[in-house]
């Protein structure tokens, strides 16, 4: 398995085996058959947004990014060399009057963090920026989250139940002193601070492959609840059995994963656009989970076209959608009942909990840490308070 693991404020890249041959030819565009949005209505973006709304993801195409890809119209064109897909921006079945371009992250952009990409290329209107990544970038490349998509992080620690006496939680599985294998130190440092593991258990050698776990099932290893449990049981023949796991969000890993963010100046320049686009993104996530098939088909097509060595199956995509719903990874904001709303108290706790960890890891300086406030990292200004999953 090959997958990026975002476990610290800086982007941690797990090496993937890149394909040696060129990318396939882009397919000819289909015809856009969506009806135009009502002129001047909530879904008409022609007078407020750029002609092409460019959105940047932080990893390869996958079902966790379904809301963004769901907006790409059926007239899409894949640029296999540049690694992007573009087409009419279709929201709730109508043509908004502008185009959308979605760009993947990870190896497609040499593993650069999304804030860096947003400042290198101002054409990127919106990027997916984890809360801890935003904290790290705040001094030089500040971003402001405008809505969540995934409400809770899907990151987990997983283990072999047989090797850990049927453990059902991370504290139970880690109690015997087993190594906690991750690709960065933020998660284990958080667990150490809470007394769940000892510092001696920290092992930062994870490379994104199953070999270590399969050969030494006594370890705990990080992963994603939307992928690894299915992959290990169904797609890794050397394992082919269930794993135990617990969501890290249940133990204080409270970051917003990949909320949609903009540069601060974008709020002033494109405020009218965001007032329409943010509610569109709120609803797009809900609609994607309700009817994911067409978007998943596009995601699988993109994975094949980009030829980066990333593998992603229909089974994993379907499992991801199921887990996002069943485990409440995507859910309304508990404080308001509004989908996509960013909780001020939670943002305060994220800053309070993660800034010291990021200073300790060397990801940010103590002087920069003093300048970071929760209020600078997000805004609910553009949220439609009537949008809910209920």
TrEMBL record:
<protein>
    <recommendedName>
        <fullName>ABC transporter substrate-binding protein</fullName>
    </recommendedName>
</protein>
<feature type="signal peptide">
    <location>
        <begin position="1"/>
        <end position="19"/>
    </location>
</feature>
<keyword id="KW-0732">Signal</keyword>
